[in-house]
Amino acid sequence: MGSALKILIVEDDLKIAEMINEFLIGSGHEVCGIARSVAVALDLAKWQSPDIALIDVKLAEGGLGTDVAASLRAISMVGILYAAGDTSPEALRNAIGDACLAKPFRPA
To answer: Would you say the pTM of this structure is higher than 0.85?
Structure first.
């Protein structure tokens, strides 16, 4: 059996972040941090080297998850999974990433 994935959660809604955290840990993954802003996400990623970042598009302090993804991809090939209320092509036009989940979503 392979090792658990290290996942960084970038989500400004703490209820949603905690739900995702509990699901991922219960599924055998390692959550290396929860960030509500771009700055905290980048700092955590620098120190934790996640395999995947699960990123909300709109973050606290007016930040954008797309900025987090672009910065992460500039330094590593971390997997990028967006979780967004607006998954229209316009909302994600310049998004760098691998996939997108539409909110609301069920953990399964």
So the answer is: yes
